[in-house]
Amino acid sequence: MSPLFAEFTGTALLVLLGDGVVANVLLKKTKGHDSGLIVIALGWGMAVFVGVLCTAAASGGHLNPVVTIALALANKFPWDLVPGYIAAQMAGGMAGALLVWVIYQQHFDVTEDADAKLAVFCTGPAIRGVRANLLSEIIASFVLVFAVLSMAAPRFGLGAMNALPVGLLVVGIGVSLGGTTGYAINPARDLGPRIMHALLPISGKRDSDWGYAWVPVIGPLIGAALAAWMHNANF
């Protein structure tokens, strides 16, 4: 498997399973309807585990633009590969979201809540406030990336043995820090599916909340940059 195809496939698996658990919890008449944040956090943790496990040997299992950028900032990944990785991750995020819509289409049709339909694809704040929402994404992304940098090999990224620790890390972030913004911590996981929400013919959908869409992109980038700086400073 080529590194770019691995990043595409891994991110698609990540979003398929991650957005899939959100659909299972939020959409009407599913087997997991209304089962709560703990189920969502566990589902996302397993989504990361599967994505990293399947792709680490080929690409380092980044599956997240801010992880790729942070590894490059920490001199653990070559900068010339960064654009291709990010493009593959974004495309994978869109593909995974498309598959979630295909699988849960009947449940989208019977769900009246347009906010719940949007939440299947992307994050949104529990209480809207730009500074607080941005800070939440910065801190959660810092925790993710600082831990990933501590696990990553000197060059390239994560190995398959890191799949379970990274998955558990994401569960921890979800249950501890996910109550404010839904812990995007990954622009490919949020922006790619948000684009698909805008494009897909989802019955009764609302707008894609583009006014908020920059927060789960810029927040993780800032958090990742801070984590890379602290890692490089050997704090």
Main sheet characteristics = none
Beta strand count: 0
Architecture (CATH level 2) name: Up-down Bundle
Task: Write down the secondary-structure element order.
Answer: HHHHHHHHHH
Mean pLDDT: 95
Strand residues, percent: under 5%
CATH class call = Mainly Alpha
Q: pLDDT under 50 segments (min length 5)? A: none
| Domain module tally | 1
Question: What would CATH call the homologous superfamily?
Answer: Glycerol uptake facilitator protein
The structure class reads: mainly alpha
Describe, in plain words, how this protein is organized in 3D.
This protein is mainly alpha-helical. It has a single domain, classed as Glycerol uptake facilitator protein (Up-down Bundle), CATH 1.20.1080.10. It has helices at residues 3-26, 37-59, 65-73, 82-103, 105-110, 114-121, 130-151, 163-177, 187-199, 215-232. The chain is globular. The N and C termini lie far apart (36 Å).
What is the compact description of this entry?
With 235 residues, this protein is mostly helical.
Task: Summarize the helices and strands and which ones pair or pack.
Elements: H1 3-26, H2 37-59, H3 65-73, H4 82-103, H5 105-110, H6 114-121, H7 130-151, H8 163-177, H9 187-199, H10 215-232
Helix pairs in contact: 1-2, 1-4, 1-6, 2-8, 3-4, 3-7, 3-10, 4-9, 7-8, 7-10
Q: Which descriptors apply to this entry?
A:
235 residues; mainly alpha; Glycerol uptake facilitator protein
